[in-house]
């Protein structure tokens, strides 16, 4: 899968992509992330990318022409037409379902806004605006990195163990179950308490462990994000466990 990122701060993207799972996928050529400096698409001596807003008011606006030139150049780099995304707090909220949908595209272009955002006419070349949450950041670079990281996890071969992706929170509409590692007992809880790993995880009984994990994932989702349960994909066993958990919660 290929990502093209257009930004006035290429180093922010390049640095963040230099470590971890995405970096290894780039090395293996499972992913291709190309970062474009918006200033390379200016034509003036000072490489100006922004200007004052028409109508007055505070802040600057990213000019349309450098962004149009960047898109023209990027579209010509490969035969297939890329899907162009504009990072924007006004866009579609990024959820796991949106991530899965974007992961089915072979090519994504990510435009990073700055200042007050991009000239409104740039939206005529954009397929979708994506927001990473209901808050305002100072630029689109962090949202672009969030999108790349989340979408990359959907690309076969990027995460070593595909089962772990399927079991992650939101994979089937549930939160993930709790995870533990060695040692089996550790001091350090509040007031020096010893904290133990649940016995079932050390029992070697895989059927019991599977059922415990299902139950914990359901209990967590019910406690923290009950809204997810309306659309979660549950098997018969999970539906039964959920009924038990709901009855117990309601009787408390
Ligand atoms: N004036 C804009 C508004 O209120 O909608 C906010 C502009 S913001 C300061 C600058 C840039 O940061 C935006 O153009 C966008 O690229 C990026 N940005 C900020 N918050 C974002 C969010 N929640 N999701 C995605 N991109 C965001």
Question: What are the SSEs and their pairings?
Answer:
Elements: E1 2-7, H1 10-16, H2 20-27, E2 32-37, E3 50-51, E4 61-62, H3 64-75, E5 83-93, H4 96-103, E6 107-111, E7 128-131, H5 141-152, H6 162-167, E8 185-187, E9 194-196, H7 206-224, H8 236-251
Parallel strand pairs: 1-2, 1-6, 5-6, 5-7
Antiparallel strand pairs: 3-4, 8-9
Helix pairs in contact: 4-5, 7-8
The structure holds S-adenosylmethionine (SAM).
Short description:
With 252 residues, this protein is α/β, with parallel strands linked by helices. The chain is built from 8 helices and 9 strands. It is 35% helix and 17% strand.
Key descriptive features of the protein:
252 residues; alpha/beta; Alpha/beta knot; Trp Operon Repressor, Chain A; five-stranded parallel β-sheet; two-stranded antiparallel ribbon; 35% helix; elongated; binds S-adenosylmethionine
């Amino acid at each position: 899968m290929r990502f093209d990122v257009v930004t006035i701060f290429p180093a922010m993207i390049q640095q963040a992509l230099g470590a971890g799972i995405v970096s290894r996928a780039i090395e293996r050529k499972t992913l291709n992330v190309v970062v474009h400096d918006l200033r390379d698409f200016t034509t003036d001596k000072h490489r100006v990318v922004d200007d004052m807003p028409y109508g007055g008011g505070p802040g600057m606006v990213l000019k349309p022409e450098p962004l149009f030139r960047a898109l023209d150049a990027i579209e010509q780099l490969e035969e297939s037409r890329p899907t162009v995304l504009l990072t924007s707090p006004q866009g579609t909220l990024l959820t796991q379902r949106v991530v899965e949908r974007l992961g089915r595209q072979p090519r994504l272009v990510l435009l990073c806004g700055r200042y007050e955002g991009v000239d409104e006419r740039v939206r005529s070349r954009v397929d979708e605006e994506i927001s990473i949450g209901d808050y305002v950041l100072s630029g689109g670079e962090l949202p672009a990195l969030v999108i790349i990281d989340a979408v990359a996890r959907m690309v076969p071969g990027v995460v070593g163990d595909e089962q772990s992706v399927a079991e992650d929170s939101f994979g089937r509409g549930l939160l993930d179950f709790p995870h533990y590692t060695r040692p089996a007992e550790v001091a350090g809880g509040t007031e020096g308490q010893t904290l133990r790993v649940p016995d079932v995880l050390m029992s070697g009984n895989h059927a019991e462990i599977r059922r415990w994990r299902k139950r914990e994932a359901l209990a967590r989702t019910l406690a923290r994000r009950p809204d997810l349960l309306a659309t979660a994909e549950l098997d018969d066993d999970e539906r039964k466990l959920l009924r038990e958990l709901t009855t117990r919660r309601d009787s408390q």
